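Lab notebook page, bench 4
Experiment: in silico fold of construct C2
Operator: M.H.
Input chain length: 280 residues
Purpose: comparison with the prior construct
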Amino acid sequence: MRTINQHRYNGYSNDSFAELNSSNEIKEIQRFLIQKGYDLGRWGADGDLGRDTKQAIYDFIKLQNGGNQQPNNNTPTTPSSTTNLVREFKSIFNRKNYVFQDDELRLNIIGIRNLDANADLFDDELVVIWKENGSYKVKRYPLTTDPGKGYLGSVMINPKGTAILKAGQYRNAYKLGLHRSKYIALVQRNGPVTVYRDNNKNGSLDFMIGNQDSGYFGINIHKAGTNSARVNKWSAGCQVFKREAHFNELISLCKKSERKYGAGTKFTYTLLEKRGVSIL
């Protein structure tokens, strides 16, 4: 693997990144940047030379050349066009006959899966859309919707295979409760979900080819570490936040919703595939 310093750049412009645009090394560079503490945005090491990756490369080179630009780990902000994003998701939900929550403080909790068979990266996204004081709000967070390599090899919790949540809408399947009796999370205790069972132990994610299994499997929405780089055993099928602070924001929103609608409020989780969401 070549490091960033072995690539040549003349400045921060699209022309500066021509070598990476034509190579197969983008993911390696992205993983290197993540290990150094740079935030590559929603998708992490996805092989796409987007704005966040270019900015991180620029910041890294500036630091190596004596600048003082440190890794940027800002919390995701509301997209510049909330209206367009809400319209896009409403259209997707309508086509799929899913329910989009429009009531005050009813949360639309939406996972966006990047269909990359390489496990162990927080390369997916969670989008939360809700209405508060009559206006739509949006938050976006990096997470994984897939199990980590720790459960895709020789270790499997379920003899049928490791769970990979099937894309779909799981109406009212979640509530606030204790994850592994440790801390408050969104726990799958109000309804069944459907998973694919990956049982070939090859260390890669096998989407849509394993046997399907429906039931109560504890496919919770919880956190990894403070700012985890790898999924490993943080997920055996759960939807897991990369950063603890982002997870805490979601739980605060859920508690606010629960205060309005009462204890035991049910939450819906919708999992979509990235290729079907053109606006992201």
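Observations: Residues 244-261 form the longest helix (18 residues). Confidence is low (pLDDT under 50) at residues 5-16, 73-79.
Next step: discuss at group meeting.
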